[in-house]
Structure to design on (94 residues):
């Protein structure tokens, strides 16, 4: 099983390119974020990933692929989950 990993591509590429290249191989998606000059990945909502765009493209290209929250712990899990759920809710309303 492979995962689409948008935060790993943002420095050089973009989310659209990730879906264009990886859709046939993506069984799940990592919901983490990207922050330029950070030593490691950061949790959803702590960086530069456009989660509305990510969720819209996921709904279009990989509608059955689950999201997995990554780089979150006890203190930032709920805000990261809320960010992802809000983006999903907004996508369903469109």
């Amino acid at each position: 099983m492979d995962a689409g990993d948008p935060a790993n591509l943002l420095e050089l590429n973009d989310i659209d390119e990730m879906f264009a290249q990886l859709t046939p191989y993506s069984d799940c998606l990592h919901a983490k974020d990207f922050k330029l000059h950070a030593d490691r990945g950061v949790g959803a909502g702590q960086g530069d990933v456009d989660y509305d765009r990510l969720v819209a493209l996921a709904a279009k290209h990989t509608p059955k692929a689950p999201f997995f929250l990554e780089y979150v712990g006890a203190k930032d899990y709920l805000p990261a989950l809320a960010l992802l759920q809000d983006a999903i809710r907004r996508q369903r309303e469109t």
Remarks:
- The chain has a mean pLDDT of 82.
